[in-house]
Amino acid sequence: MRALRFNAPFDVTVVDSPMPVIVDARDAIVRVAATCVCGSDLWYFRGDNPRDAGSVIGHECIGEVVDVGTDVHNVRVGDFVVVPFLASCGECRLCRDGQLQSCIVAAEAGIFSTQGAQAEYVRTPLADGSLVVVPGGRPTDDLLPHLLAISDVMATGYHSAVAAGVQSGHTVAVVGDGAVGLSGVLAARMMGAERIIALSRHADRQAIATSFGATDIVAARGEEAVAEVLALTQGIGADAVLECVGTEESMTTAFGIARPGATVGFVGLPHDVVAPIGRMFRHNIALAGGVAPSRFYTPALIEAVLAGEITPGDVCDRRMTLEELPTGYVEMNERRAIKAWATP
Ligand SMILES: [Zn+2]
Ligand SMILES: [Zn+2]
User: Fold this and answer.
1) Which domain does 241 fall in, by range?
2) What is the number of the ligand closest to the CA of 152?
3) What is the whole-number distance in angstroms between the Cα of residue 91 and the centre of ligand 2?
4) In angstroms, what is the span from residue 107 Cα to ligand 2's centroid?
5) Can you spell out the DSSP letters for 10-56?
6) For 188-244, what is each residue's pLDDT tens digit?
7) CA of 305 to the centre of ligand 1 (A)
8) Percent of the chain as helix, strand, coil, to the nearest 5
């Protein structure tokens, strides 16, 4: 089969790779119908996070189950599934509590996420607890990007809104205009936010934010952005803030625009971030969130896509063949594409 192999920073190529096989009775093999590049794949691409040379990269996909291990009972060969990036058993104490990101069984097995999804086939661990069957079988092609987005960015954006405690009627501010931030805008709309302020400097991303429900766009950054959001909120800040970047600047901005008593929902992987504990204490501002238990939200998000209520795949703005997908890394790294995706 063909697959994207990570060779070294700035060097990802499509190569012939061995077909994945069942190695654990709880595995399934999925023929990939659509896959995409994650913002976190770019950390490897840029060399910011180390990765072994020679591995097949990618953790976001949807597709058809073509083989299952002997201990898989909830999904069958022929099922069309969303593969949440996070692997979880669905049955342990923490999974039952909704804390799938900390699944005890996955931790014991040394598994965090599906690996090698930018390929024609992928092995998915803990298939029973992880995979979510799409009702009705393989969807029409126009739905593929929307279901694909659920495998990570939409679930992650949704988690930021849940963590921030977004409620009907809220004024919500979203820091970050990548695929996750834009998904956070959509999630805030789903939860009934009355006003959604998207912080975005790029015209193409502003357009998607607006189509997803943003009512105000703030193009400034840093202290200027804080001043603009405060001006839009009678000087007190937003009721809920979604932090979807993970840098010191984005976190500082998020706390700067959070009103007293608000919660900042953070899902951007923190890179050298220190929370402003003084401001948090002085104004009773909470910080909540972390890695999204993506599987937890997946069934409801699939229903919303199939019902035509949301189109989260609008963030997948660059469609390619699998052979072309290495170019997607370059385009995303240069911020010429929001999210590159391919249909192998
Ligand atoms: Zn991802
Ligand atoms: Zn578990």
Assistant:
1) 154-289
2) 1
3) 5
4) 8
5) TEEEEEE-PPP---STT-EEEEEEEEE--TTHHHHHHTSS---TTEE
6) 999 999 999 999 999 999 999 999 999 999 999 999 999 999 999 999 999 999 999
7) 19
8) 35, 25, 40
Residue 214 Cα, ligand 1 centroid: separation in angstroms? 23
- Distance (Å) from CA 155 to ligand 1 centroid: 10
pLDDT classification of 144: cutoffs 50, 70, 90 = very high
Give me the amino acid identity at 64.
Answer: E
Q: What is the pLDDT of residue 269?
A: 86
CA of 98 relative to ligand 2 center, distance in Å:
9
Q: Is 117 helix (H, G, I), strand (E, B) or coil?
A: coil
- How many domains does the chain contain in total? 2
Do 96 and 79 share a structural domain?
yes
Cα–Cα distances in angstroms (integers) from residue 82 to residues 90, 148, 161, 199, in the given order: 15, 7, 21, 30
The CA–CA distances, whole Å, from 233 to 226, 237, 238, 259 equal: 11, 5, 7, 9
Q: Are residues 134 and 262 in the same domain?
A: no
**Is-contact 267 292, C-beta < 8 A?**
yes
Q: Please give the distance, rounded to the nearest whole angstrom, from the Cα atom of residue 101 to the centre of ligand 2.
A: 8
Smallest-distance ligand from the CA of 126: 2
The whole-number pLDDT of residue 115 equals 93
Backbone angle region of 84, left / alpha / beta, with phi > 0 → left and psi within -120 to 50 → alpha: beta
